[in-house]
Design goal:
Immunoglobulin-like, alpha/beta, globular, 502 residues, 7-stranded mixed β-sheet, TIM Barrel, homotetramer
Chain lengths: 502, 502, 502, 502
């Protein structure tokens, strides 16, 4: 397929690029791991996010909430609470070393503080309300106070979200809306009493009964007079998965349906005059919502993300990809390096194609001149930055050629970075290797080599109109930079002579 | 062009792979530099040579040979010699850190010990005989003794070559053969007297009057009863360069002529019964012999090296590429990162295509089954290793397809690494950027990204005959590994489903 | 106190220095952590052990043993077992990167394979026999086979120990000896059937009813015809602790009583002709056996270790300090960096005084000339190596001066490294800082600076008898090297003039 | 000797701490070296300077100024100039990586641009005026323009100094004042014409006829209407050296005489109304002015520096220690690691005692309450920072005890870092080792260990008056921090019990 796109000097399009505001992570206890750290280090070095959000701050492996008997040998002696911040410090130190701040999620419930036994995931996060809201609020305050003491004033700027997906019974006992609102209010008031600079929001729901939950949540806040700082929700865009062994196969939905759904949230909030324009953070998004869906490892996922990243800022303040890496245990420990995990990076520090969707969009600064379903064009001081993609789901195999006509005169250098099924497809290489579960050093090294964009370049001369043609193979994602560039050969250097006559 | 090559189980070809025995370097004083170290570190990490050889051990910047007056204020007081090994230690420590041992070249002459004023190169190496052979021999012995003390017993294994290219008047005053033989004999005897374990050789000539020099040298050694340990010579394969500004443009010679020339050296030596079979080390080789010939940076150079590396071991013990990196000052300091320097690595630690010729050949272990002008095939325990190339000099543009039919049954994985003008061509990217002399961080980073092989893969099933087809673009160099490999999918994992139905 | 020790040329003493054979670690799952890795890296860089041994290979956090239903939605469908080696690979890769091989401990029981609910420790290791010995043996074999596949032939040399301290009811249900012998026999036979090169031993007991257990174990092995490869036991040398809050305070026992206890094990084994001389590995030793005894962080511990390390090789093949670092969770997550943990290294990568006991003994090569309760003297090619200590328990405060008279002539350099309460005492600095639970960067940096030996030196001239005087403050541990050394001043350099006249 | 010093709440003293503004370095070409980089990296990591200044920007090894013939084969064809910034970029990139900006010194003369043959130093810097001032100005402008292009706007803030020590005939042909003023004026005007934001100063003189030079220079600038941005001079404080072999032995002068000399420069400048208060940069200072004076390596040098660093800011804007490291070739390549070089760091990356004078003063923030010949006391938010020293020249051996009485109440922690002859004296260790010229790895490692301050600590309680006693051995330099600090023991932790009863 070929498309011609002509862009004029004063063309402008809406594009709120918040690609680097936040990224998701598995539970906080995993942040102690070395492989986790190395994956995150790679992500931060090559992309660079500002915040990180995940579950499990209060889960027992983080060991924050502790109880003890005054007389350990007498089970009837009074019981006291103490807090242990040893592991929290290790995690926060790692994050800060990597230039990250937490987007705090309050949850789940420490076992000893829980009112029930219900847990979620392989790692058994307790998802019941606290047995004492007073003790819960003490825990929240103590933790935030400790963060302020450890990290300084910047801790007041860490956004704080109350719980995760309370609209699902697995994540919140019976998905009890009233009980969640109580949790929210108690937490909100306790935090604001500690210091009004903290920013607090909710309800962190996913797309199940979402309109009802958002409406009721906003009404509740209004009726209670809670001046919340932001609203949060999640966004996944695949159909129900079909399961087979360790895996679930889920088909992609049309992006547009998702964008409409997000718009309804925006509209509901804006319908409350007190909350009009309140920031919405999408604190989780991805294609599939299961950590064992092979789509996450594909070039299709990367191409699809191109369109997502061009649109998710339309009505939202931020959107946090779930997750940066594949150290993740919700369905247990994965058996193989490529297992359809949520991560941008596979275990072994192998970037997946999707990694580059974030890397490319991170570079899209300047002013947006044009945006459509296949491409986005930015104007910069030195020229243009372009990202385009060719989404081919369900076995579709089309080639897409974009001819961009841009204002410009003089000489330009065009440099393209291409991620597609033939040049940056570590999943295919791993498959062709036989799908080994344990990688040898040389296999690992090859997979990393195969997980890099192909760089192309050319020189283009223009006289008023600059014509650039980009051809995208199946599920390609292409980033291109056009820069004004004179040829400045050194004395006696002649590239043509060097490459065609010797 | 298409070629079919059928290889049978018991086919064998001669291939002495000494690709990693030695690599060349600019003068030793440059080994103190940080950028030099970083380029060498890259080379050692990705390729890994055993020895390193270059000029300038005794040049004044290494500061080994020192003279002083007994009374510094009285120019008539006796003059004494002292040795300073501070810089030599720094250089040797760097080499040893990187797993390298020196291939020692004795030269050039310290200014204070020289009999004349003649120098060579921008860095003014003195190329005249010593004013005192006794003092020269003391210097040689002191230096070797120091190396033994510092590096231990392994220092006895460092090969020692006397001087460099004495058959050129620029490198040795008047190219005086008799004087060189004197230098050789004095040095040889002094070293062997110190410890007979040292290995000493010469005459380190290039291809000018080489037959005469080799004959005379062998005759001289025989008549003097010198049991030399090896013979050395150099090998360059371009025609005379045409100069323009900072550059020289030199056309490639046919490889075959060069191989014949090398054979004559072998034959002359073997004609001396005492020296029959004596090892020949090619202590320098490259295409062009000037450090400002743009060919060194091209894909053509890499493809041409493919053939060279498959043949240079035929009659020689080793062959040392001149040089590993572009920190090099013989014609002055280069003005731009790509300037036709000898290096496998351009300044900025950018691998040139040629870098991969060495990396690929380093991996060619196993038994050689087949070798021709375009390809070499090795049999390994797990399958096959193949290297092939498509040399297109003087603007030629042909595509080459090799169909290899190999013995084999069952499932195989094929992984290819391709270096060609479209996928691993940093020179072109730099040109398209406008040929900047100073690289910004982002330009440097892009150039490094563009200097990597493209990885491809597939699975092949065979029933007795394994058919592999490799297509090589202009000046391509391809390395391929075929390994026996069963598909071992994890429970429920289906690659086809993942990549064609979601 | 002053002591003179005169040593003659031919004096010799028994000293089997196995200080670096093995070191202990908390459960294997913790080896995934970054802080664990960094502590271990420090230990390996500065000391360098060969093996590492700890609990928890089969605990659920390592995720090796997995069960699943054929039809996940039908709880009555057949249940199958599968193995997951993802985390085991990560751990083994870390170990191998750091030059370590595992000393494998088989245990504890995966929850799904256990016959009961009894667990031990904060991290809930299941300590009941398998519900199926056949399934247990399959697990053991699969794990070992995987290690061979991943690590190569060297895996056959990893020593394998069956379970841990089965003589304690907490570690093995009811401390049931007969059941342990069954576990041992089944495991032993399964492993030897897999490959007879594997080395297998037990019973890994601690010092409770140890004579009885060793006797019975040897008898059992004899009667069953098990050609075991080694015997293992543990060795702790404090009295019962008194508890207070998070801590236990335990007084040191006299070393000698411990050495006698170890001798009884040796004697029992040697009383079995079939097993005479069989190697005994002390797979755990330390002063206190609880991970919250403040003694571990003191200089007293280091000085006491001096004597231990000089003696533990007398009748044993090796002795593995429990543990290298303080990432350890048996009693929960520690609240402060110094908490009396077992480690040689405190959290934050701060070496404790004990760290240097190992570093110093690691350097004690050569021939042992002399050994007593305070000192050990080795003869080397270049001179002497000495380690001495001044154990001051229970508030004792004595100074010890050792005057060593050694054979020697000529000039020597003496270099001493001193670890004592005034110069290498990070615990005291931390206390003086106010005992902070969270360390700032500058506090951490100071603590590391304060955790280094003080280096002293002098030149000694001797004429037949070399006299060295070493003064040890309270709980000092001193390492000294005497080397033949001529003064080789550079031309014109005069140290006395430089330091006393300017 | 004992001294009591009582300090009251409102006591204040003058102390302009500019310790980190600038540091000196050998010639710029040496900045290409790896060992140079590693020494500078250590200095920047532990101390952290803002600028770096040294000679040799325009020396031939930097290769900036190049001439060529239009027709290389015709020596009569026109000659052109071209500039090569390859090495300058490498140096600047290193500096920027390490957080440093240049304090630019314009000099010396490229050989091809020089009017004469006079050179200085082993490395032969040409010290004659340009043969063409126009060409010189072109060179200066081209270099500065390149720096702006490469480093951005920050390049306008690099201070620029014209030449070095023109008042010495060795550094400037005949020490011709008039010619220097011409050089200054031409350079000044050329730079300001390029961009008036550049800051330019001179005359960079040392203490020979300094009053005359400063007076004449200011008069010249006034009469020419040059609005110079700052004045520069040097400051060395030893008497004439006595030479012996490679070394010179120079006795220290009294500091006070030096401070008075500096005051005269200040007074002369301030006597010009147009230039009153103009910043004076001491662009070089040290004790001895020769790079082979053993005093630089001693503890005496460090203690003496204590007093210098407390006073040099009194009338000067900055003071740049000559030099950071011992890669330095003015008198040739040193023969041994300790050779009396200027550096804070000896070759092998061994910090000398003087290194810590800078590290300690770098930490002296807060308000100065007290300063005398032995000590300086700063008040900070958390307590106090103190630096004190005990200068013992010419073999003197006195102990100094300072009793400081400071305002304060409550509990404090005192942490001291001591650098003295017994605890941080790598020179002595090296001497005791026999003064080896080549260091083995273990010798090097020991020397680094012996080059660290001894850390001490205690807790002090105060009730209105805080009493701190610091005892300084021979040539000690001590840094102390007093901080408010409550003891916060963990539940059950009792340090006394742990260290006196077990």
């Amino acid at each position: 397929m070929e498309r011609s796109i002509k862009i004029s000097e004063n063309d402008r399009a809406v594009f709120n690029n918040r690609v680097d505001f936040c990224v998701g992570t598995g539970r906080m206890g995993l942040a102690l791991q070395k492989e986790y750290y190395e994956q995150l280090k790679l992500v931060q070095k090559e992309i660079g996010f500002k915040h990180i959000r995940g579950h499990g701050l209060f889960c027992d492996d983080m060991a924050i909430y502790q109880e003890y008997r005054e007389d350990p040998r007498n089970p009837d002696s009074p019981c006291h609470v103490e807090y242990n911040f040893t592991y929290l410090d290790l995690v926060m130190d790692s994050y800060r070393e990597l230039g990250l701040r937490p987007f705090i999620e309050l949850g789940f419930m420490p076992k000893r503080l829980a009112s029930g036994e219900q847990t979620i995931f392989y790692w058994k996060g307790n998802t019941t309300p606290p047995k004492s809201y007073e003790e819960w609020c003490r825990l929240v305050r103590a933790t935030l106070s400790h963060l302020v003491q450890r990290c300084g004033e910047e801790a007041y700027e860490y956004p704080i979200e109350v719980w995760n997906e309370p609209n699902l019974p697995g994540f919140w006992y019976r998905a009890d809306m009233k009980e969640y609102f109580k949790l929210f209010k108690e937490s909100f008031l306790a935090i604001k009493a500690l210091d009004s600079r903290f920013k607090v929001g909710g309800p962190a729901i996913c797309g199940v009964r979402d309109e009802e939950w958002i409406s009721e949540f906003m009404s509740f806040c209004r009726s209670e007079g809670l001046k919340i700082d932001f609203v949060t929700r999640h966004h996944y865009t695949t159909e129900l998965p079909e399961h087979s062994g360790h895996y679930g196969y889920a088909k992609l939905m049309e992006s547009e349906a998702g964008f409409e759904n997000l718009k309804t949230t925006r509209d509901i909030i804006d319908s409350f005059p007190e909350y009009r324009g309140l920031p919405i953070h999408i604190t989780e998004f991805n294609t599939s919502y299961i950590p064992n869906c092979p789509i996450h490892d594909t070039n299709l996922n990367a191409a699809y993300l191109g369109r997502q990243l061009s649109r998710l800022g339309d009505v939202n303040e931020s959107y946090s990809y779930w997750t940066f890496g594949d150290i993740f245990e919700e369905q247990g420990v994965p058996f193989t390096p490529f297992h359809g995990g949520f991560g941008m990076v596979a275990n072994g520090c192998i970037p997946k194609p999707t990694f580059y969707a974030f890397k490319f969009f991170k570079q899209l600064d300047g002013e947006c001149m044009y945006k459509d379903d296949d491409a986005i064009v930015m104007k910069t001081e030195e020229g243009y930055k372009i990202c385009c993609w060719n989404i081919c789901p369900k076995g579709e195999n089309k080639e897409l050629t974009l001819r961009l006509l841009l204002p410009g005169s003089g000489e330009y250098s065009l440099v393209t970075s291409t991620v597609d099924e033939s040049c940056c497809n570590p999943l295919k290489l791993w498959h062709d290797m036989g799908e080994p579960s344990s990688l040898s050093d040389s296999e690992l090294s090859l997979l990393r080599e195969a997980a890099r964009p192909l760089i192309g370049s050319s020189r283009i001369a223009a006289d008023g109109e600059l014509s650039v043609s980009l051809t995208l193979g199946r599920n390609a994602l292409v980033y291109a930079e056009l820069k004004k560039s004179s040829l400045t050969p050194d004395r006696g250097y002649d590239y043509e002579r060097a490459t065609t006559t010797l």
